[in-house]
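Quick log. Single chain, no ligands specified.
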Amino acid sequence: MTTDGALARLIRSSADRTAAAEREVCDLCAAPVADEHAHLYDTGQEEVRCACGPCSVLFADAAAGEGTYRLVPRRRVRLPEIDTAVLGVPVGLVFFVPRADGSVTAEGPSPAGAMRWEVEAAAWQKLSGTVPQLATVEPEVEALLVNTVHGLDHHWIVPIDDCYRMVAVVRREWRGLSGGGRIWPALERFFEDLTERS
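-> predicted structure:
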């Protein structure tokens, strides 16, 4: 009976440790975070980090300053169709990120992660002149997300973490050389989710 009790405690303890390991924590202070939590963009590492409430408040002012971390905004704005041909990126699923130094990168998902291209800053400024909302995109932490694959017409201003989430969807669902049959329904669900969150 004592052995059974010890075994039960061991199983419970193991389950508790597994559940704790699966919970997300703040990347700055290791406090547990809720399913819906803030993100900070690490400008030095070019990575998105999870943040608890206090850490996100602590770094909220960095969004307008020059800190290592930038608070990732939450806005999602669906735009009318935009002719992005001027940007010179012949890919139908891509996001454009203006940088603090005035440069612009285009990133597209692949089975290995995000591929990156440089975009001419003058081309971005020209497009921003015809689409005023693009001038409001916050450098580093927001992006223009475009999906014109299979005749779709999605043009969004989104937080950078949404873009990385889209890249993760592609990596997770990609099969074989061409992506397989699971990738497009998964991307459709991703864009439906964007619509619900906007």
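Strands lie at 38-42, 47-51, 69-71, 77-78, 93-98, 104-110, 113-119, 142-147, 154-159.
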